[in-house]
Design a protein that fits this description.
Strand order of the largest sheet: 1-3-2
Number of strands: 3
Number of helices: 2
Number of domains: 1
Largest sheet: 3 strands, antiparallel
Helix content: 25-40%
Strand content: 25-35%
Order of helices and strands: HEHEE
Oligomer: single chain
Shape: globular
Radius of gyration: 11 Å
Length: 62
């Protein structure tokens, strides 16, 4: 079953979740959603070993 990346991005942006993970196998599907996502600046990806990327909210600097 494919993940709903748009929903995950929105949940992350709205602080319903703290983070989610994308692996190298799912990245092409994720990137299709990411390319059309309006809030790139509010979310940041952190690469890990093994082709995993953890996406978290980008906290605004006060």
């Amino acid at each position: 079953m494919a993940e709903d990346f748009k929903e995950l991005l929105e949940e992350l942006r709205l602080k319903k979740i703290d983070q989610f993970q994308v692996d190298s196998q799912n990245f092409p599907d994720f990137y299709k959603v990411w390319a059309d996502y309006s809030y790139h600046s509010s979310i940041k990806g952190f690469a890990e070993k093994g082709g995993k990327i953890i996406y978290r909210r980008q906290e605004k600097v006060k």
